[in-house]
Amino acid sequence: MIRIALALLLSLIAPAAALAQSNEKTVSIVLVHGAFVDGSGWKAVFDILANKGYEVLVVQNPTISLNGDVAATQQVISAARHPVILVGHSYGGMVITEAGDNPKVRGLVYIAAFAPDAGESVASLGEQPVPPGESGAPLLPPHDGYLLVDPAKFPNAFAADVDASITRFMAIAQVPWGLEAVQTKITKVAWKAKPSHFMVTTNDLMIPPTFLRAFAKRSNATTVEINSSHAVMLSHPEEVAAFIETAGSAK
C-alpha cells in the first residue's frame, strides 16, 4: 500500500517538475536600483518576471561609491545561472554601463536612467542646463559627503503617479547618495559593445526627458517612451516587465 501511494505521489510530482523546468527561461535578469531607494522598488517587476519563469536577481547597491555598486552588481551577475540581461534604473544606469562589460552580460536595459560615455560622471552630466519646461532633481545641498532629495518635494519629483502614502514613506526612508558615487567617472562603456534598450519617461522630474532621449540616441538603443514619472517600475510595472522581456528575447 505504501509503495502504491509513493508511486502515485511521484507520478503527480514528475509532470509538475517537468512543466516548471520547461517554463524556465534561458536568460537571467539582474535588476539594479538607483539612488535614494533600494532594491525593494523592483518587487512588482520581479513578481511578474519570476512568475513567467525567469531567474530574477536584485542588486542591493550601497550607493556610497560607484566602484562599490559595480562590485555588488558583479557579484550578482556571477551568481546568475544563465546569460544576463542587466537592467538599471536612474543612477543604476551608471552602474550597468560599467558592470555590463562582464562577458556574461548579453544585453542592457536602461529604465529612466543615465547612460554615460567614458569620462562622464553623474556630476558632469548634471552640469548641463535643464531644458526649458523640464525639471531636474530637487536635491538638498551635500551634507557630510552625501546627497538627499528634499523630502517635501520627493513625492512629486520622484513618483507623482504613485500612491501618496507610498511616496511619503519613500521620502522619509531615502538612502543617502554618496558624493563619491556622483563624482566618479565611467571607464568602461558596455553599451558600445552590447545591445541596449532604453525606456524614456516623458513626465520625469528627476532626469529631464530631453537628456534621456539623448542618452538613448547615442547608445543606439531600441527605445520606447512612456507617459510616466521617474518611478516607472512602481507606476507601470507591467510595461516595464514587458520591455525587459523584449530585451531578453532580442537576438
From TrEMBL:
Name of the protein in its database record: Alpha/beta hydrolase
GO MF annotation list: hydrolase activity
Record keyword Aminoacyl-tRNA synthetase present: no
Gene3D superfamilies (alphabetical): alpha/beta hydrolase
One Pfam family here: Abhydrolase_6
Keywords per UniProt: Hydrolase, Signal
Annotated AB hydrolase-1 domain residues: 29-242
Taxonomic lineage: Bacteria, Pseudomonadati, Pseudomonadota, Alphaproteobacteria, Hyphomicrobiales
Domain of life: Bacteria
